[in-house]
Design brief:
Layout lengths: L6 E10 L6 E11 L4 E9 H4 L2 H4 L8 H9 L4 E3 L1 H15 L3 E4 L2 H16 L12 E4 H9 L3 H10 L2 E2 L6 E2 L3 H9 L10 H17 L10
Parallel strand pairs: 1-5, 3-4, 5-6
Antiparallel strand pairs: 1-2, 2-3, 7-8
């Protein structure tokens, strides 16, 4: 049973290499209540990947690398080895008794974390998240919640947030578009950095829960 005090760990990764074999260089996560209230937040740059110039050359948002260095310098983000980030996250999950780990398009973040784990340990260790947590996907939740919402449908049509045939448009459910709908801010642009994206995705989670979606399990 989900109530306002239920705790979630919302996570987001930015990755390099490829969509099929992503390696995370930015991991942001926050402990949040079902209401969206943030209790604790973390922002890490993965030293093992970020310091590899060859790997980072293929990062989709490689233009942000100078900003990352500036953020590391001023303490906004912390440069840490991947195994240290994993240890910190597991301690946070244990401390708060968290059962649900949430991401938008969670299959990508789950894959990027596991693939990075396998790359850096030569597959000695294959899974990043603690055993037993449930993986929730706010993309799946939003499709269920907003896909039936006529106002959201009209919002997407009016603003061109659709794809497919004109006579039967398919709605888009990116975190950026959903956040524009929730806030009414059509100028909002997603940062595509870990923690900043977490802080909009937790609002999508809270909205879906408030509107009756109480199961966002990626599998099952």
């Amino acid at each position: 049973m989900i109530d306002n005090e239920t705790l979630f760990l919302v996570i987001d990764t930015e990755a390099t290499n490829s969509i099929d074999d992503p390696f995370a260089y930015d991991v942001g996560f926050a402990v949040v209540k079902a209401t969206g209230e943030v209790l604790e937040a973390h922002s890490y740059v993965v030293a093992d990947i970020f310091l590899d110039n060859e790997l980072m050359a293929s990062a989709y948002f490689a233009d942000k690398i100078p900003q990352y260095w500036e953020d590391i310098k001023n303490g906004k983000r912390i440069l840490r080895r991947f195994k240290t980030i994993k240890s910190i996250l597991r301690d946070v999950v244990a401390q708060y008794g968290i059962r649900y780990v949430v991401a938008h398009n969670a299959s990508f973040d789950y894959r990027s974390l596991n693939y990075t784990q396998r790359l850096l340990t030569s597959s000695k260790y294959r899974y990043f998240l603690p055993w037993g947590v449930k993986i929730w996907d706010t993309l799946k939740m939003a499709r269920e919640c907003l896909g039936k919402d006529e106002q959201y449908k009209q919002f997407c049509i009016d603003n061109g947030y659709t794809y497919g045939k004109e006579e039967k448009p398919q709605l888009r459910f990116t975190a950026e578009i959903i956040y524009r709908y929730l806030t009414g801010n059509l100028d909002f642009v997603e940062e595509h950095t870990g923690l900043e994206d977490v802080l909009i995705e937790k609002d999508i989670l809270a909205y879906c829960i408030k509107n009756g979606i109480e199961d966002g399990a990626l599998w099952g």
